[in-house]
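REVIEWER CHECKLIST
Item 1: Sequence provided? yes
Item 2: Single chain? yes
Item 3: Sequence as submitted:
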Amino acid sequence: MPERDEPEVIGRRVQRLRVEQGLTQRQLAEPAYTPAYVSTIESGRVRPSDDALRHLAERLGVAFDELAGGRAARLVTELRLRLTGAQRTLATGATEAAAEEFRSVLEEAERHGLAEEQAAALLGMGECGIETGELVEARKCFERAETVLADSPLPVRVPALRGRALAHYLAGELRYAVYLLESTLDELNRGGLHDPDALLLLYASAIGPYMDMGAHARAAQAAEFALALAPQAGDPALVARMHRQVARTLLAEGRLAEADASLVKAAELYRQLQIRTELANCHWMRGYVCAQNGELDRAEGELRAALDMLSAKRAALYSSQVTVELADVLHRRGKSEEAAAILHAVLGDLSSERGAVHSAAAHRLLGIIAEDTGDTDDAEEHYVRALSLLERAGAAGDLADLCRLLGDLLRRTGRMEAALDAYRTGLGHRTAPGTTTLGPAPAQPPL
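Item 4: Structure as written out by the authors:
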């Protein structure tokens, strides 16, 4: 925070605002202070306490920071207006433009020591990094936001914590991502901090890591909790746009407090648009469960619903991951050509650093499809690529299954020693302390 102005500067500011408001020194002082004390402040002969300045600021209708340091309340409101504008830009899919807007706000907020606006800009930059797949930079932004918000209550810090967990998850660090999400959920639920939005973000974000680690029961439970907590918003984008326009009008009229309140509503609605991405994970989970139960038609519908929510312009990594699940369902429904086509289309968006588990799943499925058509060389190449990706991510359960597939292929093509090696490797992964061995589930939310 910037240092407070000298007493003489504060005194002149108090006197100017008092005269503008048409107040006497007695009216400004009452009921907590005396007119004589106000007089000494205005003359610059005394350094007022924080309590005195808060009292005077409230009576004068200005922010404490404006009275103490001359920081205009208009600046804070204008920065928040720019933040909601950047959030809207991100919601429409223009990620690079949104990142530049967030960066501009961050620089100005840092110059003026505005912690809340700094954190909001860093969160926005982190979300942009997630969208574009720049996971290291995204994680750094979320970590910086956590540092800025270090003294804030846990629900306020949840978006930054969730963002950091998400960056680790998408980088293939499954166990650490789950640890971050579960420990935060446990602290919220056991501590009585029942913030529905914070809980929704955390439960929805846990679904993907749970699924990749083979913890399907926990994934299903997290999806159930997330859907139960989801707010019922009709079209938040339209309402948010209305609040932004209202804020501009109020700001032009000098009605700063009302403009700020309108911007808070807009920011919340844009945040709910981000939650739509999280809710897509719930449809994804439902689709997965339906597929496991053999309800392939319903599974395809749920997965396509998830893709529609994510859209081609937003959440490219999520879209790619859901596409892999959809391809599996299509293959099982006899639509192998369509499945192979969409898998080849998404492989360019996935890598060992960006969606390693689902990149491996894409190669695994392409291997199975190639085997079905008799192309054993292509199948083996896909299986080997998948093994390499899974070993980096540490997805032990998937590795064991893939070793079985590779062993079967090698055995059918007459390479018995190589097949036995693959089976032994698979058994080693199956018996090792694996990524699917999780601790106790976090405490449940009050639904």
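Item 5: Key structural point noted by reviewer: The radius of gyration is 28 Å.
Item 6: Recommendation: ____
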